[in-house]
């Protein structure tokens, strides 16, 4: 009897284990199917004490990298708990969700192998820049062309917002100034500025000493990449390099054998090699807000004599100098002719000069038809003979 009970108990346990296994496998398959076929999740408010805005709309886009297209697929709204689901059957593409209805436009990218459940955190806004700072700032002089006295600069700044609110400037305020915007200082006279970032969409406002950004800055870390060019005079220039938001770390990289730089905030460090090119490295740390580094670049490459000559021949200045030179030569030739003519005239006697005047008078009479041809040529020959004979006697 005991053996029979044990046998029955074993059968019951085996059955229970089998049923649980089937349930778990079925659940796993279902969840896996859900993760692969649908994109769903929840929108959360990341700012303490704030509620989700009403009427938040989510738009789903499919990123077709083969055809370089972003295709809108579907739109949906969150429920009262912030949850959402797209009916679109997920394919083997990367996706992007655009979040509309908050204080700024946010997006969330979904990679092809990422689970279907997505958490999206949004924040309320703040116009204060007190919690915005620069963690790392690298300024690399990528190229220097001595012939043109031109430098190319590539900079990467990693910034952070340590608050739980997104910085958004009030661009509608009539009292808004550059001091109310997130900004970078550049050397005066910079050209060809390009700026890219991981921040939400915004605008770049350029001035002659740098640029400001209106892009919202959410909590967390973000990267900003900028590039520009700068012409310099002689072999040096000064870069004020103002840091209104300070910098935990800053580096300036300068190609080896292409000059040097000085700043009381920076110290020479070990050289680094990037893409087979050696760079001198200058580092600084714990730069406080509103510091000005006053970086002086010295001994920069200049054009050699051959390059200067070629550039001069191509320039407008060469044309001006050539015209002036030719004019001077012509004036010298003209002066020499006049001088020789005066000397030649000064060798005639008074008698010869009188005969020359008579020839001029004779020519005038002949032109006015006051004398005949025979008389003109006869008298002119006599006068010329007298002048010649007088010269031979000398």
Provide a descriptive summary of the structure in words:
There is one protein chain. Helices cover 29% and strands 37% of the residues. It has 394 residues and is α+β, with helices and mostly antiparallel strands. The strands form seven sheets. Strands 13-16-10-9-19-22-21 form a seven-stranded mixed β-sheet, with no helix packed on it. The chain has a four-stranded antiparallel β-sheet with strand order 3-2-5-6, with no helix packed on it. It has a three-stranded mixed β-sheet with strand order 4-1-7, with no helix packed on it. Strand 14 and strand 15 (210-213) form a beta hairpin. The termini are far apart.
CATH topology of the largest domain: Immunoglobulin-like
Strand order of the largest sheet: 13-16-10-9-19-22-21
Largest sheet: 7 strands, mixed
Query: Cα distance, first to last residue?
Result: 172 Å
- In total, the number of strands is 24
Question: What does the overall shape look like?
Answer: elongated
- Give the number of helices: 5
Which structural class do you get from the secondary structure elements? alpha+beta
CATH architecture identity of the largest domain: Sandwich
Spell the H/E element sequence: HEEEEEEEEEEEEEEEEEEEEEEEEHHHH
Mean pLDDT reading: 84
Q: Which CATH top level class of the largest domain fits?
A: Mainly Beta
| Beta-strand proportion | 35-45%
Rg, Cα atoms, Å: 44 Å
- What share of the residues lie within helices? 25-40%
Low-confidence stretches: 1-5, 27-35
Entry keywords:
single chain; about 400 residues; alpha+beta; Immunoglobulin-like; 3 domains; 7-stranded mixed beta sheet; 4-stranded antiparallel beta sheet; about 30% helix; elongated; disordered N terminus
